[in-house]
Amino acid sequence: MNKIKIVGALVFTLSISVAILFNYVNEQNKISTTLLDTINKQKAFTQEIAKNIFYIYKNKNASTVQLDQSIKSFISNMNSRDTKLEKINSTAIKTQSDKILLLWNNFYLEVQKFRDLNKTTALYSDILLEKHVNNIYNINLDLVVEFNKLITIHKTELQNKLTNYKNIEYLLFFLLVMLLIYLFTQIKVILSFVQKFLITSKKIISNSSVKELKPIEEETTSSNTSIIDATDNFNFLVKKINSSVKHSSLSIEHSYKSLESLESSIEDLIELLYIMENDKIIDKELTKKEDAIIQSLEELTTSTQRLKELKIDLDNLTSLQSNT
To answer: From the CB of residue 34, how many other CB atoms can be counted at a distance below 10 Å?
Structure first.
């Protein structure tokens, strides 16, 4: 029974562990999905900023509202990404993010220089503007490449982690199934024992006899010591009851056989008295005693018959049958 308790506790613990691990994997998937979406948005924002710079460069009187909005969105998105990165313990991802951050700072510096220079009409402003536009374009290409690397690194590490988590889940699930199968077999043995005990008890109660009280066969495959002990105790009780009834039956048999022997002796005595009476060598006092002897013989015969009937009842009471 202690084994069943231990297995039950293990099943409960493993079930909780599987549920926690499953929930953790789902949370990691959500965080990773959100982070990938954030990275893709950042990449899109840098491309949008570069396009706006190129458009403004070609159109001197174009509005910078869209450019300002793209820069604000990128910075906001970057802050959100940094917050999500804190939840991911990966040196490769953080290293790649630092590299992107360095490129972004250079990119943003070139954008600011372009915006400041675009407001002036200096002699060499067009040449400088073209230089900044080219720098912005080249850095943007580098950013796109590095963002793609970050996405690849993140997907690879995520896949590796998910594979490990899945393997752990499968292992825990396998152990859980094995423990449940073991628990089921043990409970099956217990239910089988209880069922046999209830059937036997019901027959004894309905028949008002212990004739149906038979030993319970032990489960050879059972390792449950409690069931084995209970079965042994029950079978020992059956053996003791049958042994007691058999002993009582034998005692009764010896008693009525003794009475039969005594009865035979009394019959011989009565026969002797009858002969003496015919030879007229018996007095009246002995005749009176003859009557008492005859009455005793009748009582002995009755007692013997009752003992025989009692022995038959005892033999029928149990599954043991007498050889007499």
So the answer is: 14
Cα 305 from Cα 303, distance rounded (Å): 5
Q: 2-185 has which CATH code?
A: 1.20.120.1730
Both structure tokens of 252? 């009764």
What gap in Å lies between CA 65 and CA 59, rounded to an integer?
A: 14
Is the pTM for the entire model greater than 0.85? no
Token reading at 230: 């209970």
Hey, CA dihedral for 175, 180, 185, 187, is it positive or negative?
A: positive
The pLDDT tens digits for 119-175 are 776 666 778 888 888 998 999 999 999 989 988 988 888 888 888 888 998 898 899
Contact between 129 and 58 under an 8 Å Cβ cutoff? The reply is no
Q: Which residue has the tokens 């007229």?
A: 280
Distance CA 241, CA 21 (A): 57
Q: What interhelical angle do 65-85 and 91-118 show, nearest 10? A: 160
Each residue's pLDDT tens digit, 220-266: 555 566 667 777 777 777 677 767 767 776 777 777 677 667 667 76
Q: Where are the domains of the chain?
A: 2-185, 225-317
Largest CA distance in the chain: 180
